[in-house]
């Protein structure tokens, strides 16, 4: 048997029966809580504070010196995180796919960048559509992979090999051409959430893929077909994997139930492109 197992009827039947057994056993499946564009904007603002963003000369600290809660990472670590956040969120990529991006996968052009991955989890043999990403307006700088990549490359001076390497002593990326591990990324991401006094434990590396999916659906008003095409999901809709990314009990609701038919509810966030702020935009 060959092909994508995620669209196999046998696998779909097994997963359905597995969910049924878990329901009977009173087990509640829990997905990583989706990250929101609002939280990403808060992280962006905090990381871009001068004391967190400006590159400083290496200043070794004594092991006996008590560290501040927010000193888990230096400016270079925060530059790397900003780029990883934006790419993972907007391109609907898995964190390990982003961490293994190499310089040759990125092509800069006059409008932005084109990211071409040679393989993905569901595309082992290639045939992956490139991600043409244009620079976003200043109001959406916190979601812009073009800005974040440029800032990271300028700060890290990485021009070959893996773009996101393990952050080692002195807040510098490793000189060895080895990608950052998912474990280190998750630890830094959760520390970054603690900077904002946000409980980090509901969030995981999959929070960005889920959050980006919901952002494109609810804020960008993309259709399910567009999201599936962009994110690399099957368009056969036989197993509706996309639904698990759009809906989960532990996500923060975007609208209150009592406001769904309320004609006097406050306007939504103004769209930077069309200028509309009504909920039907």
UniProtKB/TrEMBL annotation:
<dbReference type="InterPro" id="IPR011010">
    <property type="entry name" value="DNA_brk_join_enz"/>
</dbReference>
<dbReference type="GO" id="GO:0015074">
    <property type="term" value="P:DNA integration"/>
</dbReference>
<dbReference type="GO" id="GO:0006310">
    <property type="term" value="P:DNA recombination"/>
</dbReference>
<protein>
    <recommendedName>
        <fullName>DNA breaking-rejoining enzyme</fullName>
    </recommendedName>
</protein>
<dbReference type="GO" id="GO:0003677">
    <property type="term" value="F:DNA binding"/>
</dbReference>
<dbReference type="InterPro" id="IPR013762">
    <property type="entry name" value="Integrase-like_cat_sf"/>
</dbReference>
<keyword id="KW-0233">DNA recombination</keyword>
<dbReference type="InterPro" id="IPR052925">
    <property type="entry name" value="Phage_Integrase-like_Recomb"/>
</dbReference>
């Amino acid at each position: 048997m060959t092909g994508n197992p995620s669209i196999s009827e046998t696998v779909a039947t097994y997963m359905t029966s597995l969910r049924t057994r878990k329901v009977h056993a009173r087990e509640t499946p829990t997905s990583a809580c989706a990250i929101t564009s609002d939280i990403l904007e808060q992280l962006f603002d905090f990381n871009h504070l001068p004391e967190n963003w400006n590159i400083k000369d290496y200043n070794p600290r004594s092991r006996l010196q008590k560290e501040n809660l927010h000193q888990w990472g230096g400016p270079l670590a925060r530059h790397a995180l900003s780029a990883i956040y934006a790419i993972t969120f907007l391109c609907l990529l898995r964190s390990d796919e982003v961490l293994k991006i190499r310089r040759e996968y990125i092509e800069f052009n006059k409008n932005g960048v084109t990211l071409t991955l040679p393989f993905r989890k569901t595309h082992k043999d290639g045939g992956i559509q490139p991600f043409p990403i244009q620079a976003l307006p200043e109001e959406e700088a916190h979601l812009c992979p073009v800005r974040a990549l440029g800032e990271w490359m300028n700060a890290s001076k990485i021009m070959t090999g893996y773009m996101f390497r393990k952050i080692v002593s002195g807040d510098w990326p490793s000189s060895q051409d080895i990608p950052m591990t998912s474990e280190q990324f998750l630890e830094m991401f959760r520390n970054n959430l603690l900077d904002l006094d946000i409980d980090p434990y509901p969030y995981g590396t999959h929070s960005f893929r889920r959050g980006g999916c919901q952002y494109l659906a609810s804020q960008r008003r993309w259709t399910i077909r567009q999201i599936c095409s962009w994110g690399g999901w099957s368009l056969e809709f036989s197993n509706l994997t996309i639904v698990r990314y759009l809906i989960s009990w532990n996500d923060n609701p975007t609208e209150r139930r009592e406001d769904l038919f309320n004609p006097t509810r406050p306007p939504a966030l103004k769209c930077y492109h069309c200028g509309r702020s009504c909920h039907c935009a």
